[in-house]
Write a structure and sequence with these properties.
Belongs to the 3-oxoacid CoA-transferase subunit B family. It comes from Methylocystis rosea. Keywords: Transferase. This is 3-oxoacid CoA-transferase subunit B. InterPro entries: 3-oxoacid_CoA-transf_B, CoA_trans_fam_I, NagB/RpiA_transferase-like. The longest helix has 10 residues, at 3-12. It is globular, with a radius of gyration of 17 Å. A 10-stranded mixed beta sheet has the order 4-3-2-1-5-8-11-12-13-14. The chain is built from 4 helices and 14 strands. It is an alpha/beta fold and 219 residues long. It has helices at residues 3-12, 84-92, 128-134, 194-199, and strands spanning 20-23, 42-45, 49-53, 74-81, 98-101, 105-106, 112-113, 137-141, 145-146, 149-150, 168-170, 174-179, 182-188, 205-206. The protein has one domain: 3-Layer(aba) Sandwich (Glutaconate Coenzyme A-transferase).
């Protein structure tokens, strides 16, 4: 299991039957592959689709069926397509139960930076700002560091996506929950020590006496 699969399998355990869920581009889209058997979850893409699943098998691709990041998807029986305005009305109206987003940085207050790096071309923010504000729960699915630099930092060095803090942070090392008191370490990945997590995190962590091992969604 590589880092991205560990993250996706752990995030899948946050899904609940009947949820409307938005998966951000990149790593978060992997969560669709690990929806627990027998669970009915409606996936929403901000380009105007509800009711899609993981990428299709080779030979079954439909170039007209893509997610917001341009990745190929499959529509499920009962799927609905609509315009982008309707899609964002669902998001801004608070109808999305959970959004899973990637991140460039998270600060000690649980605020997310996800949409631009100063000095580099950015095509636009996409739906990130709306999702962080509008979704009932926001889970960040990201790798703990980038080029050996921690992504969980004391203060953001990049423009924030929203002033609202996220609900949960899931990395290949840990599950961390932003709280009023700070970032609370909730779980550690299999084979990872608390010392490893603290050493890989720039922000201060609230560490319990016992940190349980991270469960992963199984096939």
């Amino acid at each position: 299991m590589d880092a991205k699969e560990i993250i996706a399998r752990r995030v899948a355990l946050e899904l609940r039957d009947g949820m409307l869920v938005n998966l951000g581009i990149g790593l978060p889209t992997l969560v669709a592959r690990f929806i627990p058997q027998g669970m009915s979850v409606a996936m929403q893409s901000e380009n105007g689709l509800i009711g899609f699943s993981a990428p299709p098998p080779d030979g079954m691709e439909n170039r007209d069926l893509i997610d917001a990041g341009g990745g190929l998807i499959m529509s499920l029986p009962g799927a609905a397509s609509f315009d982008s305005a309707t899609s964002f009305a669902l998001i801004r109206g608070g109808h999305v139960d959970m959004a899973v987003l990637g991140a460039l940085q998270i600060d000690a207050a649980g605020r997310l930076a996800s949409w631009m790096i100063p000095g580099k071309f950015t095509p636009g923010m996409g739906g990130a700002m709306d999702l962080v504000v509008g979704a009932k729960r926001v889970i960040v699915a990201m790798q703990h560091a980038a080029k050996s630099e921690p992504k969980i930092v004391e203060s953001l060095g990049l423009p924030p996506t929203s002033a609202r803090r996220v609900s949960l942070i899931v990395t290949e090392l840990a599950v961390i929950e932003p709280t009023n008191e700070g970032l609370a370490l909730r779980e550690r990945a299999p084979g990872v020590s608390v010392a490893d997590i603290v050493a890989s995190t720039s922000a201060r962590l609230i560490v319990p006496e016992v940190t349980p091992e991270m469960p992963l969604c199984r096939d």
